[in-house]
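Let us practice reading a record.
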Amino acid sequence: MWVAISLVTVTKVFTVLALLHTLQQGDITSAEASVHDFLPGFCPLDHDCATDPVTFAALASQMGGIVREPGGPCNGDASDCNVTTAAMTPWLNSQPLLWPPNVRPSYSNLGFALLGHAVAAATGDAPYETYLESLLARLGMIDSTFANTPQTLASLARGHRAGTYLTELGWSRPDGGMQSTAADMERFLHFLTGSIADATAEAVISTPRRRWWALPRFVNPDGISGYGMPWELLSVNGKLIPTKWTAQSLEQSTYGSCAAVPIGTSHAHCYLACMQVRFD
């Protein structure tokens, strides 16, 4: 029987996947388009959203200036976040930005929740989870899901420290609520690095757009690290390589799952660390 693994923050990679497909379809005209056009009434406290909007690209690269975690109706706890975007908006508008968009990066789970719901609103036809799962199915990732059904929970690896399942995230699912398997993640890596470039894959995201996806959005002053969408970039042999968490951070992480999977890892994040093989 296959073992499902909670992807936690690697879910953000797939939220960006949904954004890039929406761009390819023309539902969003530019990555620099304003999210305010798709999230009615949303504007952070004391910020001029008309002249300096929060953009899709800013949210996708942790450059939106958004506070880290949801509050208000979520009570500051993503595990109690079964609300709508409309219900979240008054609280969102009560929060000032940490700094203006595109000034500097700051890790924000809340920003990715906003990104997922803005992307879904741009398509105009389905919730975020339904929209993304349909894209994954087209890539053959049939065991990747947001559903916490008895069947998926029975196959879900338990946390390696807490010994329990990760909590249902509700409205915050776009920042960390996805489950997948080793086989599905391997297939995604083949797609992402160009090993799968058939007509179906190209219709999800074209090869030129996938290459653009690997580019940095912000390079730290040290010149050897930075951020992409949503990559955490590290310098390897003088080149910035997209990853999503490093091997060291995996060892220190209190999240994720420990399971015996075919490639001998114990955490979903390890799969995405392999992406350096073709991006240089």
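A brief commentary: The longest strand covers residues 232-236.
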